[in-house]
């Protein structure tokens, strides 16, 4: 597999550090690398030739699966939510990237997309595309969590709080499982909804965690100009880029909690930078249309 660069934690101040997992690989970024690693090994073991997965039009997961497929010798099929995108591949940075890495798309309506876990839907895909190794939406399964258990290293036991963004809950589950009892894991959901607690409880082997649900900015991929300014300031100040869908919202939330005295005075905090930077181009096209300041 890939060589993980020596990603030493970056210091923001005496209290706050960033684990730059986004530097793992330019294309299979951050937690998507972690989640794919053992799935790719399993697909090889099963002698699968094709990876099939699901995602929306800006999905980091779709981009990562396409890049991993082309690097490790798999065909890739992306089942994409939204039929209307069929004629809009050009102009969508994520889909263009995935297509350039050999991904074949299967666009489905939002209604159909909701049925994607059903046997009927999967059988239909098999009829159409032949056999494949299935990776669920967002890539969360037991093998993905095993990969995410490798994010924290022994040196990270010095931290009192570990924070990460949350989508499906796979990443935080891996962090929880590899954390120590003296540590608390705080997840910042990038979307609305309380179903996440249940999902995380299914995979997490400890209860030293909590979700901070105040920083989704209205829902998945929703943004405002305060968030964009924060992301631009953060990069200017610390030379660390953040993405607008996950890591930007988490970092915004962590700064807000610090400001409001949430953490004990001498607590050491480690933010996990889970990647997602490929999403910036797509968001900038939207910001441009809305006449808003772009991400630098
Ligand atoms: C997908 C993604 C997440 C969410 O991870 P889950 O394991 O689904 O919770 C967080 N950050 C980034 C950058 C992502 O791309």
Automatic annotation (TrEMBL):
GO molecular function terms attached to this record: D-cysteine desulfhydrase activity
Source species, domain of life: Bacteria
Residues with PTM N6-(pyridoxal phosphate)lysine: 32
Keywords for this protein: Pyridoxal phosphate
Pfam families: PALP
Keyword Transcription regulation in annotation: no
Residue stretches making up the Tryptophan synthase beta chain-like PALP domain: 10-275
Catalytic-site annotation from UniProt: 59
Record field: transmembrane: none
Cofactor: pyridoxal 5'-phosphate
Protein family (similarity comment): Belongs to the ACC deaminase/D-cysteine desulfhydrase family.
Full protein name: 1-aminocyclopropane-1-carboxylate deaminase/D-cysteine desulfhydrase
Source organism per UniProt: Bizionia algoritergicola
Lineage: Bacteria, Pseudomonadati, Bacteroidota, Flavobacteriia, Flavobacteriales
């Amino acid at each position: 597999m890939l060589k993980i660069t020596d990603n030493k934690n970056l210091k923001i101040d005496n209290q706050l550090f960033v684990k730059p997992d986004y530097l793992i690989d330019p294309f299979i970024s951050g937690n998507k690398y972690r989640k794919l690693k053992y799935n790719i090994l399993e697909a090889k073991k099963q002698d699968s030739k094709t990876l099939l997965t699901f995602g929306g039009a800006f999905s980091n997961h779709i981009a990562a699966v396409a890049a991993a497929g082309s690097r490790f010798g798999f065909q890739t099929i992306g089942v994409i939510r939204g039929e209307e995108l069929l004629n809009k591949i050009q102009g969508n940075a994520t889909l263009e990237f995935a297509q350039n890495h050999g991904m074949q798309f299967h666009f489905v309506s939002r209604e159909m997309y909701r049925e994607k876990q059903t046997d009927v839907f999967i059988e239909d895909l098999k009829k159409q595309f032949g056999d494949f190794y299935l990776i669920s939406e967002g890539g969360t399964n037991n093998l993905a969590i095993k990969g995410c258990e490798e994010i924290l290293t022994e040196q990270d036991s010095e931290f009192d709080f570990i924070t990460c963004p949350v989508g499906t809950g796979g990443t935080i589950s891996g962090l929880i499982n590899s954390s120590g009892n003296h540590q608390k894991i705080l997840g910042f959901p990038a979307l609305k909804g309380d179903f996440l607690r249940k999902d995380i409880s299914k995979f997490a082997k400890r209860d030293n965690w909590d979700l901070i649900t105040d920083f989704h900015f209205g829902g998945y991929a929703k943004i405002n100009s305060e968030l964009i300014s924060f992301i631009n300031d953060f990069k200017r100040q610390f030379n660390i880029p953040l993405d607008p869908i996950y890591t930007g919202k988490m970092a915004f939330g962590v700064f807000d909690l610090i400001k409001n005295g949430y953490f004990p005075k001498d607590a050491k905090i480690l933010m996990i930078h889970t990647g997602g930077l490929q999403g910036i181009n797509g968001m900038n096209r939207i910001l441009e249309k809305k006449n808003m300041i772009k991400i630098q």
